[in-house]
Amino acid sequence: MRRFQGALLPESLLECFFAGNLDAADAEAITAKVTAALPASSALAPERIPRRRVRIVPVGRTLRQYVAPNAAEANSATEVFCQVGKEDGDNWLCLAVLSQLIEQPLYGELRTKQQLGYIVQSSVSESEGVRSLVFSVQSAIQPPPEVERRIDAFLQSFRPTLAQLPESELKTVREALASQVTDVDQRLGQQASRLWTEIVTRRYDYGRPWRSAKRLRGVTREQLLHFFDAHVAPGAPEGRRLVTHVYAKASAPDAPLVVDGVDDEFYLPQPDRFGERVTGV
After folding, report:
1. pLDDT digits (tens, 9 = 90+) for 133-158
2. What domains are defined for the chain?
3. From CA 200, how far away is CA 270, in angstroms rounded?
């Protein structure tokens, strides 16, 4: 067991974050104790630290189709993944506001009115600083291609609603989001989670929520329309759409499934801002 332990981690990188009723001496003592317990004989070189990479979805529509392995599963699933990209100007602010505006109408149309299935949802996804707007529907009523068509029909019908959005409603959404962004340190666990996120992303921007809230309050309807038309609307000129169809075995098509390839092109990793004085978002 000792030989195994010694070979398990010949190199290691230890990064610690302490929150709560501790002082610097406590933190240093705990770190030293953990370090001594590690079998590593040397530190992991910075260039050998594993980094997650996020693949760039090509402009246009990329389709991938699969069959669910469970023969007893009656539901099929459809996901429309609209990759927006890294923070660029106010794009991520528009994404946050648009997600709030679109969530209930999407559910009302596809779940309540059309009754496509039990699960109908939209959400914002973020991985390594790359954000996306995701529409997901699980349905035993319609096959995935038809569900995708109805998602697109909803998005087309939502565009006039967005264009006529009253300023009072937009203000309510902006204020709710701004409050949500800054209501982050009510409990120690919340604060620790927020700070740890800044650490693991190497961003170290601990004042970010309050500056983000200020910028959220400035998002306009015109910005939202431009963002929607460029990134989310069907056929959007800058849209990077990954569509996934998962068929129930009983309803799998006879035709060959489509699995479009994606180039090995990745977003640049997040810059390491350790030791940098962060002044902007």
Report:
1. 999 999 999 999 999 999 999 999 99
2. 2-48 (no CATH), 60-251 (3.30.830.10)
3. 10
